[in-house]
Each structure stands twice: as structure tokens, then as C-alpha cells.
Amino acid sequence: MKQNIYDNNKFFEKYQEIRARENNYNNLLEQPNFFTQIPTLKNKVVFDIGCGMGDFAAYCISQGAKHVTGIDISSNMIANAKKRHIHEGLTFMQVAFEDVTVPNGSIDFVSSSLAFHYIADFQLLIKKISTALCEGGMLLFSIEHPIVTANKGKENWITNHEGNLLHFAVDNYQDEGLRTQNWLVENVMMYHRTMSTILNTLIESGLQIEKIIEPIPTKEAVCNLPSLHREFRRPSFLIIRAKKHKSKLA
Amino acid sequence: MKQNIYDNNKFFEKYQEIRARENNYNNLLEQPNFFTQIPTLKNKVVFDIGCGMGDFAAYCISQGAKHVTGIDISSNMIANAKKRHIHEGLTFMQVAFEDVTVPNGSIDFVSSSLAFHYIADFQLLIKKISTALCEGGMLLFSIEHPIVTANKGKENWITNHEGNLLHFAVDNYQDEGLRTQNWLVENVMMYHRTMSTILNTLIESGLQIEKIIEPIPTKEAVCNLPSLHREFRRPSFLIIRAKKHKSKLA
User: Fold this and answer.
1) CB contact, 8 Å: A93 with chain B?
2) Which residue, of A18, A147, B46, B214, has the greatest Cβ tally within 10 A?
3) Which residues of chain A does B174 touch, with a Cβ-Cβ cutoff of 8 Å?
4) B199 contacts in chain A (CB < 8 Å)
5) Which of B30, B94, B31 is nearest to B59 (CA)?
6) How many Cα atoms occupy the beta-carbon half-sphere of B168 within 13 Å?
């Protein structure tokens, strides 16, 4: 099932409001950690899945990438990306990754920031990425952490009568599949997968795990956005870097 | 700090009672999953860390292993192991792994069942294991899952007024280090480490992650020990198989 929540106008409007603020979870927590793992981009062919408004694709071009394809299922996003970033090395397409044809071994670097939890068939996704990557090519992606997506309840921070946070509720961990959350609008769909499913899928698809990050905010970030202190109590995000085996070594 | 809780006589007595029951978490959940990942043992040199009463070491011999060294910090355990299992290919020693000298590259297979969460310096432990392993050698270990060890509270299953389980409480996830739990006796010490610390430590020590298991009980196991149904709600254990890089490929 291909969800296209970013073409829900109410959702997209609220999303743009959040992203316009400098102090959000992406800017203060996910992106700084994601950026520590980006490979050298000079002359690389890059594929960005869930490219949104195209800022990361444009960044890759600015770092010398030969060509960057950014795809997103949302026409709102792709329209914005095309308006914001024009460069001969940049291609933006409104399409789901499942429906794209990418020549085998043609990509040096596949990136994806906070998009894979919207994709139903993770095995197919990772297999397709692994096939598209050249030998030694890299996949870098961030997703919502399994600790956060596990519970089917809508509110996972448990508070006492005074409204103080007691702990974070985990439940239904082994029951993978669809979850609905209230984020910006009601019933946003995403998919819960266990840590072992995520990692074993990468390994079984010929990708070697190189780095795992469960981001921790800096002190400065917590000053700017105090709710980030909760990240010490449980991680919101998971960032994984993996490398395509060279076939002789596989 | 080297904890030697198994030489606490009250603890050891209760531990023996539990292990004497067929229906315990080790027999029904951890061991069946651990065993799925054991390599071919024929002519292998094996090192078992936290060998307990030596049953796994003896199993390796029965499968054709050339030599098995079992170490445990507990004199109770080693005394039992030596009594239960006598074979020219078996050596049992009461010693902490930190204090053992193992020739570089001399071991084919390092195993450890539910012992690493008692060891304070995980980096040192894994580095030492990696150095002891031959090229292509394997490490297989199980530990308490980070979801379970995170919270500093003593009771992590949250219940309602009727005593029904509501959810599992996670907290203090990023605050690694000592935890005390009440298991069999009060204040058993163990160490909480995040998933990313565990996996990155292996990777940085030259070990390639091959398989992650968060064990799920079989229906039959849940019939035999109904409390195992909680394993669907959050995992108790984490099992990891990793392989020493061949140096040419590293």
C-alpha cells in the first residue's frame, strides 16, 4: 500500500509550518546525525528516496555529485523540489520506489531520510536498493525507532496525575505491520518492524552493516527545543549505514 | 568490576532450582534460538565464556569439536562443570575472560550464553574476542535485550488495578551502565548497553554482523510456560552472530 499523506493538504500545510521552524526534530536531532555518515560525494551517482522538497539532493550536487535522482510519492513535495532546486545534475520524479526501474549496479549512494517507515514491503525495498547499488556502494537511511513504532496505542509517554512523564510504553513489539499514529493529522499510517527484521533484511540482501546510530541530542539542541530531553529516555530515530558487498568477497 | 553472583549460595541454590525445571526461559526460548546459529563444530577450537555447568562445552565435544575451553567466574559453576563432564578435549577454568591469555587467532568459535551483561567493559571484551578469533571465526552470544535492561526501575511490567499487564516501561535508554535487578536475590548487578553500542562495538572490532535474533516463543513453549506470552509484547533476549573479517577483506 502506497500512502501519500504528504498530498493531504492539511497535513502538508502543518508539515511545512514545522519544517519552517529551525528548532524541530529533523534539524536538531536526525539530520546532524545523518550527516555524520554521508560518504564522499564527488562524481557519485546518488538516489534519494523520499526526497521531499529536494534540499538533500541539492546538497549532494553542491558537494560534487555527478547526478542525483530524488523521488517522492507526493506531488506537493516534487512540485516544491522542482521549484526550489534547478540544476542539470538533478532529476526529481513523483513516483514510488517500487515503481522505478534502476539499472543494476548503477548507483553509488542511496539515501533516505525518515521515509522507509511509510513503505509496506521492506524486503522488496531493500532487495531493490541492493540490486541498484554498485559493488562497494552505500545505503544510508533513517527511520522511526522500533521502540517508538511498536506500541499500537496512540499515546506512548505515560504521565502521572501532575502530567509528569513516568516512562515510555512498549508493547506489541513482535507484531510487525501497520500502525496508525496521530502526527499533524489523525491516522497517519506507518509500518512497525523489529530491529532484527530491519538488520537481517539488510544482511540477507547482501548489505554489510557499518554503523548504527540511535541519536542523542546535544545540550544546545535541548536548550533550543526542551522536549528533546526525552531522547535520553528512549530513542525516536534509528540511522543505519550499510555497504554493498563486493561480489568477490560476498 | 567482576561480579560473582553465582557464588552467592542463596542465588546459586535458586538458580539450580530454576534450571532443574524443564520449563524455563533458557530451555524454551533462549537456547532453541541460540542453537539455530551454531556453526559446524567438527575439529573446531571452541571457547565458551560463562560456561556455567559446562553442558554447552560438552555438547560441542559431542559434535566433534577438537578442544573446548569453558570459563566461568563462579567456583560453584566450575566445580559442577568438572564433576559433570570429563573428556580429554574439555578444559574448565574459574577465571574472568579479562584475565585469560588466549593466543591471537587461535579460536574458531567463541560462544557465550547470557553472560555478557554481567561484564562491565564491553569494548575490551569484544576486542579481546576478536583478537582471539581466527580469520573467518565466529562469535555467537546472547544477552538481555536493551529494551529490558534500560529502565532503572525494579518492576518494568506496568499493571492496572486488576493486575493485568498494560505495557512494558522503557526509560533511561541512553544512560548506559550499571543496573541492579531483583532476580532470585536482591540487587543482582548487570550492565545496560544500547543496541547501537553493542553493534558498533562488534563492527569497530573487526566483526561482521551476520544475524540478529529477538527470540519469539513457539506456541508449544507458551503452553508449557504461559508467562512466555509476554515475549510477543517485548523481547527479553538478544542473540547476535558475527564473523571475524578475513584480513585481506577487512
Assistant:
1) no
2) B46
3) 214, 216, 231-233, 235
4) 199, 209, 212
5) B31
6) 24
Please answer whether residues A52 and A76 qualify as being in contact, where contact means their C-beta atoms are separated by less than 8 angstroms: no
* CATH number listed for the domain at residues B5-244: 3.40.50.150
Question: The C-alpha cell of B103 is what?
Answer: 593466543
B124-139 residues labelled b (16+ CB within 10 A) or e (exposed): ebbbbbbbbbbeebbb
Q: A5-147+191-244 architecture in CATH?
A: 3-Layer(aba) Sandwich (3.40)
d(CA A94, CA A71): 6
Q: What is the pLDDT along chain A (250 residues), one digit of tens a residue?
A: 466 777 777 777 777 777 777 788 999 999 999 999 999 999 999 999 999 999 999 999 999 999 999 999 999 999 999 999 999 999 999 999 889 999 999 999 999 999 999 999 999 999 999 999 999 999 999 999 999 999 987 779 999 999 899 999 999 999 999 998 776 667 788 999 999 999 999 999 999 999 999 999 999 999 999 999 999 999 999 999 999 988 654 4
- Cβ–Cβ under 8 Å, residues A240 and A209: yes
A170 vs B233: CB contact, 8 Å cut-off?
yes
Mutation target for B interface from A143, A156, A196: give the one with most B CBs within 10 A.
A196
User: Residue type at A170?
Assistant: V
Alpha-carbon dihedral angle through residues A170, A174, A178, A183, given to the nearest 10 degrees: 20
> Considering only CA atoms, which of A199, A212, A193 is closest in space to residue A149?
A193
Q: In A21-31, which positions are buried (b, 16+ CB within 10 angstroms) versus exposed (e)?
A: eeebbbbbbbb
Which residue in A148, A233, A244 has the most chain B C-beta atoms within 10 A of its own C-beta, making it the best mutation to test that interface? Answer: A233
Closest CA to A214 of B183, B196, B59: B196
Backbone angles phi, psi at A103, to 5 degrees: -60, 140
